[in-house]
Specification:
This protein is mainly beta. The protein has a single domain, classed as Immunoglobulin-like (Sandwich), CATH 2.60.40.10. The strands form 3 sheets. It has a 4-stranded antiparallel β-sheet, with no helix packed on it. A 3-stranded antiparallel β-sheet has the order 1-2-7, with no helix packed on it. A two-stranded antiparallel ribbon has the order 3-4. Strand 8 and strand 9 form a beta hairpin. The termini are far apart.
C-alpha cells in the first residue's frame, strides 16, 4: 500500500476573485476615562505586489496582475483624525492593525481603509466609558 500523497498547497486567489470588505473595528469591553486603549481594525482585502518572478533574484511588472493593496488607514476619534498609516503592497492579505488611543471623551471611533484602487471601507464604533 502506497503512503498517502501530501495535499498540494492552497493556491492564492487572484486579486480579481478575492472577496473584499467589510471593515471591522474592535474596542475593549471595559474602558475608563483617561485610559490608553487598543483599537483594532481589520478589513478583508487582498495584497498583491503586481510583480512576477523572472528567476530566483529578478522580478518584473506583471501586466496581468496589477498591484492591489490597502494604501491608507485613517483613524478618527469624534471629528478629529488621530492617526493615519500609509501602507504598501508588502502588507498581508486581510490586515489587522492595532493602534493606541487615549479615551478622553465618549465619542465615535471611525476607521477608513483606502485601497490602491481608490475604494474605501469604513467601520464605526461608539466609545463609551464602562468602568470607573
Amino acid at each position: 500500500m502506497e503512503p498517502p500523497k501530501p495535499e498540494p498547497p492552497v493556491a492564492r486567489l487572484p486579486a480579481s476573485e478575492y472577496p473584499r470588505g467589510p471593515a471591522r473595528l474592535r474596542l475593549p469591553r471595559r474602558i475608563m476615562k483617561g485610559e490608553v486603549i487598543r483599537v483594532q481594525a481589520k478589513v478583508r482585502h487582498p495584497s498583491r505586489t503586481g510583480l512576477r518572478m523572472l528567476d530566483e533574484h529578478r522580478f518584473a511588472p506583471d501586466p496581468d496582475n496589477p498591484a492591489v493593496y490597502i494604501r491608507l488607514l485613517e483613524v478618527f476619534y469624534g471629528e478629529t483624525k488621530v492617526a493615519w498609516y500609509e501602507m504598501s503592497s508588502a502588507l498581508s492579505d486581510d490586515p489587522i492593525v492595532t493602534c493606541p488611543l487615549k479615551a478622553t471623551s465618549e465619542a465615535p471611533v471611525r476607521v477608513v481603509f483606502t485601497s490602491s484602487e481608490g475604494k474605501t471601507y469604513e467601520a464605526v464604533a461608539s466609545l463609551r466609558f464602562t468602568a470607573s
